[in-house]
Design goal:
Strand content: 35-45%
Distance between the termini: 57 Å
Number of strands: 25
CATH class of the largest domain: Mainly Beta
Structural class: mainly beta
Helix content: 10-25%
Number of helices: 5
CATH architecture of the largest domain: Sandwich
Strand order of the largest sheet: 1-9-8-4-5
CATH superfamily of the largest domain: Transthyretin/hydroxyisourate hydrolase domain
Radius of gyration: 22 Å
CATH topology of the largest domain: Immunoglobulin-like
Length: 363
């Protein structure tokens, strides 16, 4: 009996720990900005698309940036990726070898969009274990709750609370009926609003095809959370030592606002606006019918607010108006020679935005 249990545990260990890890070349460890990440995951033996693969995007300091799940076509897609440093993607699915690989700016197009195709290898039959994973509905629900991001919980029809996510678990209380446990507290899915394409969308509406009961329809709540319930947009981040990952206090961060703004915004919030022509080309491609109505400018910036990073290297700004904003850092003397960029942030909405931009400094 004991031998059987040990054999079973060994099989579980083998199934979990078998990784395919493709390392990043030393000269490719640069920071770059990614607009959209999409792709398709296939079975290496059959060539068929694989559903429910967990696609996790990590930065070089092992911080989870985004988490996705492939659909029935093996596809996944995520907008507003933002700045990445030595990024890598991990693919994970029960009874397949876990696969980790790096991505580089050369894989993206001129508009910062990247599409990848990867194959994952099934485990041999004698190493597979009974599927003890979560159901599809719980996995899909958890995808919308990333550590460090936010969601809104509707307290009543006039007030919603912004919750910063630290821990999350979707719990299936009965078949096809779930609740969300966030930061140790239970939340009704019909009152959870998660970020979707610049708005906050009702979770029970998103999952309605997977739920056994018409929870959203019976709630009488709106699909999207009204803007007046949202808190002002936050632009925040941390200043970090690139070598050891330690926070850097005492750095001055300046948030500047563009003097001349576009007449209307389209596309993704985290679009990098460093030159006029790439921006114009981007908008023209996503909205060719209306491109004559678009106006573009060389942006000049006016200092808007200043902050100093705290003892944990953190800083944060709030803005209440849409616009183009730029971050600039003056680091402590020890890091004065560190190469540092000036990230540009396109804010389409003055409320509800949550934009993270870290500074990694070399001593």
């Amino acid at each position: 009996m004991i031998r059987s249990v040990l054999t079973f545990l060994l099989l579980i260990s083998m199934a979990i720990s078998q990784d395919v890890d493709i390392k990043l070349p030393p000269d490719k460890g640069i920071e770059f900005k990614l607009n959209t990440l999409s792709g398709v995951i296939l079975d290496e033996e059959t060539g068929e698309p694989v559903m429910d693969v967990i696609v996790e995007l990590f930065t070089g300091n092992n911080i989870l940036k985004h988490s996705l799940l492939t659909d029935e076509d093996g596809s996944f897609s995520k907008d507003n990726i933002g700045y990445l440093w030595k990024p890598r993607i991990r693919l994970d699915l029960n009874n397949y070898k876990r696969k980790t690989f790096s991505i580089t700016p050369e894989q993206s197009d001129s508009f910062g969009n990247m599409h990848i195709e990867q194959k994952i290898t099934p485990l041999p039959e004698n190493q597979r274990i009974i599927n003890l994973n979560q159901s599809t509905i719980t996995k899909r629900a958890e995808i919308f709750f990333i550590k460090g991001n936010v969601f809104y919980n509707l307290r009543n029809k006039r007030v919603a609370d912004k919750i910063i996510i630290k821990t999350v678990e979707a719990i299936e209380l009965k078949e096809k009926y779930i609740s969300m446990k966030v930061n140790g507290k239970m939340y009704d899915v019909s009152k959870c609003y998660v970020p979707q394409n610049g708005k906050y969308e009702n979770l029970s509406f998103i999952l309605q095809s997977l739920l056994s009961e018409p929870i959203f329809k019976e709630s009488g709540l709106p699909v999207y959370l009204p803007e007046y319930m949202l808190e002002p947009t936050v632009i925040f981040g941390s200043v970090i030592d690139k070598e050891n990952g330690h926070p850097i206090p005492g750095a001055e961060i300046v948030l500047s606002e563009a003097w001349n703004k576009t007449t209307s915004f389209s596309g993704n919030d985290s679009l990098s606006i460093s030159r006029v022509m790439p921006m114009a080309e981007y908008f023209a491609n996503i909205d060719k019918k209306d491109k004559k109505d678009k106006k573009f400018y060389n942006f000049r910036y006016n200092t808007f607010k200043r902050r100093v990073s705290d003892e944990k290297g953190r800083f944060a700004f709030t803005v209440t108006l849409p616009g183009v904003y730029q971050l600039e850092i003056t680091p402590p003397l020890k890091y004065s020679n560190s190469v540092r960029g000036k990230p540009n942030i396109l804010v389409k909405y003055g409320r509800g935005g949550w934009y993270k931009s870290d500074f990694l400094l070399q001593p």
